[in-house]
Design brief:
Elements lengths: L1 E5 L8 E5 L10 E8 L3 H6 L17 E8 L11 E5 L8 E4 L4 E3 L6 H5 L1 H15 L7 E5 L4 H12 L4 E6 L2 H10 L3 E4 L4 H8 L2
Parallel strand pairs: 8-9, 9-10
Antiparallel strand pairs: 1-2, 3-4, 3-6, 4-5, 5-7
Helix pairs in contact: 3-4
InterPro entries: ADH-like_C, ADH-like_N, ER, GroES-like_sf, NAD(P)-bd_dom_sf, Quin_OxRdtase/zeta-crystal_CS
Organism: Saccharopolyspora shandongensis
Protein name: NADPH2:quinone reductase
């Protein structure tokens, strides 16, 4: 199969397209035909050996994918042909990858594989920040910094889904502010001197 792999740590230019053997899932893993893979900041750091996870060289990066199940363990609710999003953690930049059933999620027919590949890191991070960590309750206000990026827009939408009363976006430009509004934010403020306008929007 074709895969993008990293054999030296000198930045994104080190990524090469190579022919490698397709992965063999163990008894507890899901084999996925990859249709789209998310590219996020950890992959950039991995090309320089600066991410907290440091695989032995050479390795195939790619932590999140959208694709179709080829093989799945029994009693997981997954079967061949299912359209899924998955956290592979490594190996996603290839025609096939493996993932654990616990990090493989069926997607609806109206979600594209590209959209699916953008879900795991962004939305699971937003969920973790707002619920287990932030303990968001219905009606509370949420302030989202970096609100026009992947995790920022996911945080806006997740906060709204959990019943936030007001979501205020903090962005560096008006253009990014409009992106945050399109994602569901109620208001946006510019990062330079953001505290005073936030106080106005929240009435102190």
């Amino acid at each position: 199969m074709k895969a993008a792999h990293i054999s030296k740590l000198n930045g994104p230019d080190a990524v090469e397209i190579v022919d490698v053997e397709a992965p063999e899932p163990n008894a507890g893993q899901v084999l996925i035909e990859v249709h789209a893979a998310g590219v996020s900041f950890p992959e950039v750091l991995q090309t320089r050996g600066r991410y907290q996870v440091k695989p032995d060289l050479p390795f195939i990066p790619g932590a999140e994918v959208g694709g179709v199940v080829i093989q799945a363990p029994p009693n997981t609710g997954l079967k061949p042909g299912d359209r899924v999003a998955a956290l592979s953690f490594l190996g996603g930049f290839a025609e096939y990858t493996v993932a654990d059933p616990e990090t493989t999620f069926k997607i609806p027919d109206n979600m594209s594989f590209e959209q699916a590949a953008a879900v795991p890191f962004n939305y699971l991070t937003a969920h973790f920040a707002l619920q287990p960590r932030g303990r968001l309750t219905e009606g509370e206000s949420v302030l989202v910094h970096g609100a026009a990026g992947g995790i920022g827009t996911a945080s806006i939408q997740t906060a709204k889904a959990f019943g936030a009363g007001q979501v205020i976006a903090v962005t560096s430009t008006d253009e990014k502010g409009r992106t945050a509004i399109d994602a569901g934010a109620d208001e946006y403020v510019l990062a330079d001197g953001f505290k005073d306008p936030v106080k106005e929007h929240t009435k102190g």
